[in-house]
Amino acid sequence: MNITKRIFVKLAGATALAGILAGPAAAWEPTKPVDFVIMAGAGGGADQIARFLQSVAEKNKMMNRPLVPNNKGGGSGAEALIALNTTRDPDHTILVTLNSFFTTPLRQENLGIDVQTFTPIAMMSVDPFILWVHKDSGITTFEEWLEEVRKGDYIMGGTGKGQEDSLVITYLEQAFDLDIKYIPYKGGGDVAKDLAGKQIMATVNNPAETKGFYANGDVVPILAFSDERMDAFPDVPTLKEKGEDFSYYNQRAVVGAPGQSDEAAAYYQDLFKTIYETEEWKKYMESESLTPLWLTPEEQKEYWAKQVERHKELLAAMGE
């Protein structure tokens, strides 16, 4: 499925991909291992992507110093944002982020985080959400799910309060007059595991987080929050098909610490553009149902601004 940039960012005059860097790779190189901070717990989509990116860089000997994955998912990603905002070495600190990059600073204003001060590195893709139920529920359609939820005492899980999963679930509650008990988890991997173990009744995990349980036949997809039906799930309708003008994607991006030098930023931008263009990454995006979306640093900044405003509206709708 090919979703164009206009769905996410309306810009005048698209910048060519080759324009990210002019001329050869930057002369700057890391002088020690790079702190590769992950804004989520182990096992979730952000964690999986970070470790795959690290493996591609290592396998292809793209760096003279390694990327060192470092999970900091505490406080709905506040731990990671603070780590970058206060690092003493911004040139050796980068972050794999998701939409809590926008929501956490809005919900926790005392953090003093301004995402526009962070350094744009690479938008690697966006990740749609799917509504999943356990196979033993007997539910195979969204209409059957609505009927079950309306019976009462319905329990769902997701990654943190005010984060992506809870925003999507709150939208469903408000659009369809539902009452759902929401249990927050530290990471999407734990959410998927507990659905497979029938500790909760449904989730809105990303496809990659639930892939193994889906392959085993433990869980069933019944609704997609994408703009169009997904290639990997052609029989799963979208929420838009149900009459709601709503879609939701998680950004899968790499950003640098505030104060990162132009030379270091250019190095990382070149690195992740190279990774983005590898066959390994293209195959990974296809296998994990990720939607390609490369943005230049300038486009990323505008994307951030638009997403901050959108998430202000979504958080306000859920009373945050």
Polypeptide structure, described:
This protein is an alpha/beta fold and 320 residues long. The protein has helices at 45-59, 78-86, 100-107, 142-149, 164-176, 188-196, 207-215, 262-276, 279-287, 297-317, and strands at 34-38, 67-71, 93-97, 119-128, 130-134, 154-159, 180-185, 202-203, 219-224, 249-256. The protein is 36% helix and 18% strand. The strands form three sheets. It has a five-stranded mixed β-sheet, sandwiched between helices. It has a three-stranded antiparallel β-sheet with strand order 8-5-9, with helices on one face. Strand 1, helix 1 (45-59) and strand 2 (67-71) form a beta-alpha-beta unit. Helix 3 crosses helix 10 (297-317). Mean pLDDT is 89; it is low at 1-26.
Keywords:
320 residues; alpha/beta; three-stranded antiparallel beta sheet; 10 helices; 10 strands; 36% helix; globular; disordered N terminus
Helical amount among residues, as a percent range? Answer: 25-40%
Our Rg estimate from Cα atoms comes to: 19 Å
- Secondary-structure-derived class: alpha/beta
**Segments where pLDDT lies below 50 for 5+ residues?**
1-26
N to C succession of SSEs: EHEHEHEEHEHEHEHEEHHH
